[in-house]
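Quick one, tokens below. Sequence please?
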């Protein structure tokens, strides 16, 4: 019988190609936590979570000890195919904390795919599509910087852009207007305010932007103010998508009950954590007719690969274009030998069994802070 015999927890630091600014922070380097999960039959799966505090509520410094002391020991000795049992054990040992659980969940899917000799999307329902459009990400900056980035994305073949906002109504409108003038009417434009506005100002902000044909607005209000976000969603015509408010699976239910979520943004590490939670949420969204998209923070190839497999299997339920970002646009390097292909505004699902990506041991040595080992005695 195959069982999990060893878990390696690997914190990794990689510089960014350029600083990324949002309404309340500027990021110059990215911290990741990788997992390498081995079985007694020699099959090894890899996982990842990309904490980005203060954007996320978990950090590399909290995730590593949580995995080492509480969560990773729960999967030792377990059959990697017994996901529901494993999730019950992880949740009982440490309620909440989706990020570390996601790093293990993704690795277990990698193991299952490699064991069966199939790509992960076959475990999620099969590939509806293996190549799909991607949304370009532009951070805060001067109007000229933003205009130049928008021109570059369009020249590269992108048909949709997500623009960070939160500089104040006048500056935001100036930048949004510049992007719309630059890309024309045929490129989709969505905005991400990263909690920049209290509800009354958020309503004013969204209404002022609507004349620029905005597809959706992401998290305009503080993460904890679910009722405020609902007030915004009910007062404007543009769809509202929570992000920082979505952390646990229960958050999605509360946001839906309050009518604070017009679009459900899924990630492979939250809300809930892992492909297992993402599957549950997209099924809920389908039943309730809530449009979805898959998005991310800046990620490495493991997490990106997991997202592409999920998109491939659930493409018909993802009504908005998905947004994935990582190397080489935002981070200087990756720790996998071959990153998921992103060209011409398109993303491709990696081929091969499991996730279809393999760790580069030399790069791992370069960027890994240390390796923490949990092993079955």
């Amino acid at each position: 019988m195959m069982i999990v015999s060893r878990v390696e927890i690997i914190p990794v630091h990689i510089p960014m190609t350029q600083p990324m600014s949002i309404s309340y922070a500027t990021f110059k380097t990215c911290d990741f936590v990788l997992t390498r999960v081995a079985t007694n039959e020699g099959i090894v799966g890899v996982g990842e979570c990309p904490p980005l505090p203060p954007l996320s509520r978990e950090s590399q410094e909290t995730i590593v000890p949580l995995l080492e002391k509480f969560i990773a020991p729960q999967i030792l000795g377990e059959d990697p195919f017994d996901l529901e049992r494993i999730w019950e054990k992880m949740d009982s040992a440490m309620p909440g904390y989706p990020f570390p659980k996601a790093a293990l969940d993704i690795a277990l899917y990698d193991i299952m795919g490699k064991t069966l000799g199939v790509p992960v999307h076959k475990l999620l329902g099969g590939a509806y599509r293996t190549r799909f459009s991607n949304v370009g990400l532009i951070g805060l900056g001067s109007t000229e910087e933003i205009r130049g980035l928008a021109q570059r994305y369009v020249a590269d073949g992108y048909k949709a852009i997500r623009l960070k906002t939160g500089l104040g109504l006048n500056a935001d409108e100036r930048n949004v207007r510049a992007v719309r003038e630059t890309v024309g009417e045929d490129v989709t434009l969505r905005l991400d305010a990263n909690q920049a506005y209290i509800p009354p100002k958020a309503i004013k902000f969204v209404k002022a932007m609507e004349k620029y044909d905005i597809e959706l607005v992401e998290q305009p209000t503080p993460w904890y103010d679910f009722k405020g976000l609902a007030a915004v969603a009910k007062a404007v015509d543009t769809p509202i998508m929570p992000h920082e408010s979505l952390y646990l699976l229960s958050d999605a239910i509360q946001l839906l009950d309050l009518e604070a979520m017009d679009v459900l943004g899924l990630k492979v590490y939250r809300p809930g954590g892992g492909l297992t939670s993402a599957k549950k949420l997209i099924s809920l969204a389908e039943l309730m007719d809530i449009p979805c998209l898959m998005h991310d923070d800046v990620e490495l190839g493991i997490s990106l690969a997991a997202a592409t497999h999920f998109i491939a299997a659930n493409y018909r339920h993802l009504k908005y274009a998905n947004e994935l970002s990582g190397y080489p646009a935002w981070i200087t390097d990756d720790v996998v030998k071959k990153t998921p292909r992103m060209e011409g505004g398109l993303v491709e699902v990696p081929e091969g069994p499991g996730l279809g990506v393999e760790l580069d041991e030399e790069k791992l040595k370069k960027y890994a802070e240390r390796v923490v080992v949990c092993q079955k005695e």
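The chain has twelve helices and 14 strands. Residues 280 and 345 are 28 Å apart (CA to CA).
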